[in-house]
Amino acid sequence: NFLENVIDWGLSRDRYWGTPLPVWVCPDCGQIEVMGSKAELKEKCGIPYDKDIELHRPYLDNLTCKCPKCGGAMKRTPEVIDCWFDSGSMPFAQYHYPFENKNLFDETFPADFISEAVDQTRGWFYTLLVINTILFGKAPFKNCIVLGHVNDKNGIKMSKHKGNVVDPWSVLDKQGADAVRWYFYTSSAPWLPSRFYEEAVSEVQRKYIGTLWNTYAFFTLYAEIDKYDPSKYSLKDCKLTIMDKWILSKLNSLIKLVDGDLAKYEITESARALQDFADVLSNWYVRRGRERYWGSEMTDDKIAAYTTLYHVLVTLSKLTAPYTPFIAEMMYQNLVPNFFKDAPKSVHLCSFPVADESMIDDTLERGMDGVLDIVVLGRAARNAGNLKNRQPLAEMVVVTVRDFSLTPDEEKIVLDELNVKKLTVADDATKYISYMLKPQLKTLGPKYGKKLGQISAFLASCNAQEVVEAVKDGGVYNVPDLDVTLTQDDLQIFTQSAKGYVAAADKGITVALDTALTDELIDEGIERELVSKIQNMRKEAGFEVTDRIKVYYTASGRAAGVLKKGAFAADVLAQSIEEGEGEGEGFKKEQSINGEKVTLTVTKI
């Protein structure tokens, strides 16, 4: 109740330094004169108009004026004004308003925003409000960004005595200014205390700046090989794939979100949206489309891939410029001026991006969000069943209560991503996964101690899936007839997959994978393992991504049969796959393929 308890503000201070209190008092009759300007002061003290005066102590202390009441010599009271009054007067005092700069003051008052630490709530924020509300009838700022204090990694105030001070210059030298800025944008809401330490800065640097830079580096690597010139192509002329259309829709939705959040000074939300986009750009769009850049010919599909990713990266450099100005400038300089001579010389001279509504497809984004959720659950199910990602599976089942359905293209993406041959949509998740619920005593005990027995009985006989879906993502479930409200923290949730399946469920979606493996599926899994091993050997040997190779092997068992067929040669740019040690110099390595010992040698042609 700070405002209710506010007391009168005594403005005077018994100090030497400060703004002199402009009050003259007559020692004879007590008359008081408050000077409102230099002109008034000169007039009443008999100072020529063209003579300047020093408005600080001790000079003002020597000026006297004639008392209008008794004719005595009035002298300035010795006090100075509380410096907090100076701070609250800043909006108009900085322009010497109302004596000059009226238009400038009118244009800039109130300020778009101010920012200071939370302890200024009773300081600068308050004095600004008090003085300017009295003078102008309104607050001198439209927005106030309140900052929490910066503490050490344990949340303790930094102190030289405690030895827990983090040297900011050390962090700036190691991780860079962009990483430090990004940490404060995304670590917590601005008004909350933050825990600042090098490892935390490194983590956010990896999650966003590293991800963004790796995506940029991927593009430039292949663009230089193919001598891609963005000035020769435009998106409207490209034959875009569903993934291209999706990432462009996602990008324009991001532009709207970031622009809207920045207009509301919601910095953390907009920065996290940028971070999420960089993640799906790198780990979904680019990763799924890598093969589009591998061919030797400049096909229509490769042009669409290059042009889409180029457009996204240039737009991202502009979007991230206010947050991470240095990486944004480096990306922009390498992507734009060399190809577009009339473009602004710096990303910071560019207009902020404007969303192209024609590129936004809510249905496509909703469907791809569903695809991503299905893939995440499919991976979780694989992990639960100890099924390697490179091992193909015959079938998967998807059950969802959400408002989306997979198009044929989206279904193909799911099958390819999860390495499954067939996708079936079902409407009864209980055939593939079941839940068992038990009470979480440490939370339910204090709230419903006497009802624990009834709650346990309910959980043992209820529709567990209905309860689980209700409490997910901060929801609640109201137990009928018990006056009990359950949250996710109140429950121990156990899952059980049906026989022959491994399943996972979340966000209204259940994914079940058929675990049965045929000989054909096992051989295909071995083939994928071999491709991965050989690709890694190419990197270790220092081969270029375009180098053609020969592969030699010694193996037994199922792996030998797969190698003998050599059906995957094109996937590793191999001219041939032959049994033996190979001739001449080559990079040789012993590998384990599904428990079988295999020796591989790769030789550059």
From TrEMBL:
Entry superkingdom: Bacteria
InterPro entries, per database record: aa-tRNA-synth_Ia, Anticodon_Ile_ABEc, Ile-tRNA-ligase_type2, M/V/L/I-tRNA-synth_anticd-bd, Rossmann-like_a/b/a_fold, tRNAsynth_Ia_anticodon-bd
GO molecular function: ATP binding; isoleucine-tRNA ligase activity; tRNA binding
Catalytic activity of the protein: tRNA(Ile) + L-isoleucine + ATP = L-isoleucyl-tRNA(Ile) + AMP + diphosphate
Limits of the Methionyl/Valyl/Leucyl/Isoleucyl-tRNA synthetase anticodon-binding domain: 244-394
Keyword set, alphabetical order: Aminoacyl-tRNA synthetase, ATP-binding, Ligase, Nucleotide-binding, Protein biosynthesis
Ranges for domain Aminoacyl-tRNA synthetase class Ia: 1-188
Pfam families per UniProt: Anticodon_1, DUF5915, tRNA-synt_1
PANTHER family (alphabetical): ISOLEUCINE--TRNA LIGASE, CYTOPLASMIC (PTHR42780:SF1), SOLEUCYL-TRNA SYNTHETASE (PTHR42780)
Protein name, per record: Class I tRNA ligase family protein
Organism: Candidatus Coproplasma avicola
